[in-house]
């Protein structure tokens, strides 16, 4: 059954998800805060800054007015940067309060709110009252916009404590190349999505420093152990971290040149300073603020996360990236499984 869907955020991932939903037969309104981007999408059906040389469906319409974009929507999909989630959700709540609508709220962003360290579904729940929404669903897993754009096979997860809502979202997106599984572990899915970006920074840095496959495999494996330790301490199901939104997302983010977090780490490992890396990336590098949030959470929970701590030291304490690696290697020996 066709649904009316508002997609908020016209970056690479938001715009490609909007295009997929349009091609699946839904009525899709894509919102961007940038009028020039809206004009480009509507007039030329392109989004060159984010997905170069891709032609969007000519029935996909973009809007710069948020109220118009979400008017009558059955589903509102947030794909804005983590730092913008709260402010945009607040604006959405103001509009919904005037219409008495109760859409399903979905987010496909990956990160933790700075200072509060809250997961994004928690932020959405705080800003959009229960009376103004049917449910909150998290969409996450191993996915690059560039590959979904060319209809490569992609499998991700829709997580919610409302299983019916998760199944609705599952059906919205499913097609021959895009498959969704449902999950009730919102905590694990969101933490896996946010924390894998930290390990991707480290994996890129190893590449930039010239290390080989052994080192990258070690980093990813021990990085997953850190993610799992913190996640379980915060209430996640440990099995989630060996699923699509755990090890699946970690693999794709920590091994691919499509990953801006991997690219940022690679540039740091190659000798670029952090400010230059941030200034030249052109898109948000979610792993940088996520490293700070995860480090502070680990301190609060008394959870050992040595890789995260080392990356934090590089990003926030100007530690020499070439020195933190031998420091990690010389730590006291421990059992692998604890």
Describe this structure in words.
The protein has 338 residues and is an alpha/beta fold. The chain has helices at 12-23, 35-44, 66-70, 82-99, 120-127, 145-149, 163-173, 186-209, 213-233, 244-255, 260-269, 274-281, 287-301, 306-316, 321-329; strands at 4-8, 27-31, 61-63, 75-78, 104-107, 135-140, 154-159, 178-183. The chain has an 8-stranded mixed β-sheet with strand order 3-2-1-4-5-6-7-8, with helices on both faces. It is globular, with a radius of gyration of 20 Å. The protein starts with a strand and ends in a 9-residue tail after the last helix. The model has no long low-confidence stretch (mean pLDDT 96).
Spans of at least 5 consecutive residues whose pLDDT stays below 50 are: none
What is the structural class?
A: alpha/beta
**What name does the CATH topology of the largest domain carry?**
Rossmann fold
CATH architecture verdict of the largest domain = 3-Layer(aba) Sandwich
Beta-strand portion reads 5-15%
Termini separation: 48 Å
Order of secondary-structure elements = EHEHEHEHEHEHEHEHHHHHHHH
Question: How many H/I helices?
Answer: 15
Average residue-wise pLDDT:
96
Domain tally: 2
Strand order of the largest sheet: 3-2-1-4-5-6-7-8
CA-based gyration radius: 20 Å
What is the CATH H-level superfamily of the largest domain?
NAD(P)-binding Rossmann-like Domain
How does the major sheet shape up?
A: 8 strands, mixed
- Shape field: globular
> Helix amount, in percent?
40-55%
Query: What is the CATH C-level name of the largest domain?
Result: Alpha Beta
Total DSSP E strands: 8
